[in-house]
Specification:
The protein has about 375 residues and is mainly α. The protein has one domain. About 65% of the residues lie in helices and about 0% in strands. It has a two-stranded antiparallel sheet with strand order 1-2. A hairpin with a 4-residue loop joins strand 1 and strand 2. The radius of gyration is 21 Å and the shape is globular.
Length: about 375
């Protein structure tokens, strides 16, 4: 919508420099601002509506966690609607819908949000703790495979877009059709990892800010010919448009954190955590940086790994490694106050994002001095 309006204005006033507003960074800033303001402006009303219809039951497999979270019973949930609706509305306004990756990304995010909403509704309407794990995984995998196949079709016609980049080495591995299962695993794994991290007030949202911002940089670099050459990453024309989507999401998450910080007025629920995690996976797949995502989302990886290790160890030895999994519950049961624990996880997430970005190795010695010392203009669309 914005691009159409700018094209119309440029045609009316050819001497104006309105084309500059169509570039990625101004649109990304606008997308983040729109999502944030929508979340803040609509927050109280939406929380009131959620409180009337969707209050979080205090259900946990651990009696100790149920005891610690007694005060959180009946808190409104499904607050992921803040983020998803703000992101979709913002993207509809400022994104370039001619971009081949955009409909795939938006469609997958919307599908995962719908799955998350179904999971939340099962928790709210029944005595169960959500959808059956197998059912949930099957639907997630179907969504991820559909997105992976569509991205594969887009990338198939271009050299290097099906290669796996090995961070910190500059090497690539040709995947061929193996691109599809790897992409699906990345999207499903990332979606579930963020879902597992959503257990304390502000934890998943705060960690998402660091990981999402880092991947916004990665997608921007991948979509920019000069930056991709400088940072020694695959050039993926069109990937830069996903920076706008990432910015819109981050704006929505910041607006949500306004109400989700301790003590939370609303919970994200699976309605928010599943699509947020899926978006991280999609950004990494499109930018061809699946392995770098492991470093950038280190906190989410640690949360998921703690659950896998806990389950595997208990089945094999009948003993537990952690007091409780995911990892944040281990520290919570160890006596760490929730607000202090969340901030420490935020710090860890920011450090992981910085470490991950070092995997984009610059090649300054190979570039002309003019490019190294001057600002680089971005591509417009």
């Amino acid at each position: 919508m914005l691009l159409f309006f700018l094209d119309w204005l440029s045609a009316c006033w050819p001497a104006s420099d309105l084309a500059a507003l169509a570039r990625i960074t101004p649109r990304a800033a606008l997308a983040a601002a729109v999502s944030f303001l929508l979340a803040i402006a609509c927050g109280r009303r939406m929380i009131g509506w959620l409180a009337a219809h969707f209050r979080e039951p205090n259900k946990s497999a651990s009696p100790d966690i149920e005891r610690l979270h007694q005060a959180k019973a009946a808190t409104p949930t499904m607050g992921g609607l803040f983020i998803v609706s703000g992101t979709l509305g913002s993207c509809a306004l400022v994104c370039d819908w001619h971009n081949p990756y955009l409909p795939i990304t938006i469609g997958a995010v919307a599908a995962l949000a719908t799955l998350g909403a179904c999971d939340d509704l099962v928790k709210l309407r029944t005595s169960r703790r959500g959808l059956r794990a197998r059912t949930k995984l099957i639907v997630q995998t179907a969504i991820a495979l559909a997105a992976a196949l569509l991205i594969y079709r887009v990338n198939l016609a271009f050299d290097g877009r099906l290669d796996l980049v090995v961070p910190f080495s500059g090497r690539t591995i040709a995947l061929g059709w193996w691109f599809v299962p790897l992409a699906a695993v990345t999207i499903v794994g990332s979606s579930n990892a963020v879902n597992l991290a959503d257990g304390l007030d502000g934890l998943a949202g705060g960690c998402m800010i660091s990981a999402g911002a880092a991947l916004a940089v990665v997608t921007y670099a991948a979509g920019h010919a000069t930056w991709s050459a400088y940072l020694n990453v695959p050039h993926v024309p069109g990937a830069g448009e996903l920076t706008v989507v990432a910015a819109a999401t981050l704006g929505g998450v910041l607006g949500f954190l306004w109400f989700n910080c301790h003590p939370a007025s609303v919970f994200m629920g699976d309605t928010g955590s599943l699509p947020l995690g899926g978006l991280l996976g999609l950004l990494a797949v499109i930018a061809r940086q699946e392995l770098l995502l492991v470093a950038i989302g280190g906190v989410f990886v640690a949360e998921a790994a703690s659950v896998i290790l806990q389950v595997a160890c208990f089945r094999l030895t009948k003993k537990r490694i952690f007091r409780c999994a995911p990892l944040h519950h281990h520290f919570q049961l160890g006596g760490c106050p929730e607000d202090k624990l969340v901030v420490r996880f935020w710090i860890a997430a920011a450090l992981c994002a910085l470490v991950g970005l070092t995997g984009l190795q610059g090649r300054s010695a190979d570039l002309p001095a003019k490019i190294q010392l001057t600002a680089i203009d971005e591509t417009s669309r």
